[in-house]
Amino acid sequence: MARAAKATDTGTTGSAKRNVSKDELLKYYREMVLIRRFEERAGQLYGMGLIGGFCHLYIGQEAVAVGMEAASIDGDQVITGYRDHGHMLAAGMDPKAVMAELTGRIGGSSKGKGGSMHMFDIETGFFGGHGIVGAQVSLGTGLAFADWYRNNGNVSFTYFGDGAANQGQVYESFNMAKLWNLPVVYVIENNEYAMGTSLARASATTNLSQRGASFGIPGETVDGMDVFAVKEAAERAAEYARSGKGPYILEMKTYRYRGHSMSDPAKYRTKEEVDEVKTTRDPIDHIKTMLEQAGVEEAEIKAIDNEIKAIVLEAVEFAQTSPEPDPSELYTDVYLEA
After folding, report:
1. Are the C-beta atoms of 258 and 57 separated by less than 8 Å?
2. Is the separation of the CB atoms in 160 and 225 below 8 Å?
């Protein structure tokens, strides 16, 4: 039996001089701005009492979902935890259906019964939205097992955070994935603070890309604030998994601007720290600078901003006018009907 490949860390993959087309720059700018503006509105609706339960915003982390999605092909699956709205939009879900789910309306993607943390859309390959910390990792591994069994060439992109990286089920999943060389890319969105505790205070080792080393799973650390660094790493990892070599780990060094959830005042970090990240590392500002350097006129960028504003406003209106689910919906989608 051949030895398992030694886990490798290629260091942090970050910005580099790239030959990027104007169309590609505009595409990623549009997708990230959509997520940013959508989440800002969701936060406002939550503050108005129109969204119940928990609500975890993706503001600051947009480059991860958009860059990873750029490496996916038809049939690939995405599964994540409860900071999921950005992933849904990046996967191509209708903003109206996502916002209506947040407000608990029948027009939502889960008919208003799932809320912020439990949305699914099989058509776009989005498998949730899961409220139990780390639970999606074993489910994502199961999706990869199905791909392996069917030999369909698809990959499961399984996301979790730095807080979930210490969960036992994560390592059970790593072991199974490597044992059978399942086509799964584990994406660790390291936003540094989990639910409110810094990584350095909670983890004995902080290089999360190497958490699969004992299983022979390679990994690398990526600048998760740079959409092109994410895309390039995603393409490498996806090709590795698709080729039959097994799982791959990507640690995305990113940052959330808001608290863990809407109820978190985030007093465990300073305002100056957050402002510094916004000023020096913001993923949208980064790509906007690239657009300006590519000679894109301010009017063209403004047109995209206005288009996104209209899309989000339409989603908000739909989410407030779509009817609430009929009480009979309590009994649907529980058991498979014959």
Report:
1. yes
2. no
Strand-pair partners of 13: 222
Strand ranges, E, within 114-226: 156-161, 184-190, 219-223
Predicted TM-score of the model (pTM): 0.92
Residue 172 CA from chain centroid, whole number: 22
Residues in contact with 329: Cβ distance below 8 Å, sequence separation at least 6, in sequence order: 106, 111, 112, 113
Number of Cα atoms under 13 Å in the Cβ half of residue 36? 20
The token pair at 137 is 């990792």
Tokens of 10: 């290629």
C-alpha–C-alpha distance, residues 167 and 150, integer Å: 29
Q: Average pLDDT of 130-143?
A: 97
**Considering Cα of 188, then 189, then 194, then 197, what sign does the dihedral take?**
positive
pLDDT tens, position by position, 187-219: 999 999 999 999 999 999 999 999 999 999 999
Give the separation between CA 322 and CA 29, rounded to whole angstroms: 30
Residue 49 backbone zone (phi > 0: left; psi -120 to 50: alpha; other: beta): left
> Which position has the token pair 């300073």?
270
Which residues, 6 or more positions from 118, have their beta carbon under 8 angstroms from its beta carbon? 110, 128, 129, 130, 131
- In the chain, the N- to C-terminal Cα span, in Å, equals 46
Strand partners, 252: 189, 222
Per DSSP, the chain holds a count of helices (H) and strands (E) of 11, 6
Say if residues 183 and 174 touch (Cβ distance below 8 Å). Answer: no
Dist. CA 305–CA 60, nearest whole Å: 17
CB atoms within 10 A of CB 125: 21
pLDDT at 19: 81
